[in-house]
Amino acid sequence: APGTVISISMASIALRQLLSAVTDHEEDIK
């Protein structure tokens, strides 16, 4: 279903943003 594809793509984008935010935070700590 198209709605499922949109949900998955949005979830992957959110996950990617979360990962980049975490790595940026770790770099700031160093």
Automatic annotation (TrEMBL):
Descriptive protein name: Uncharacterized protein
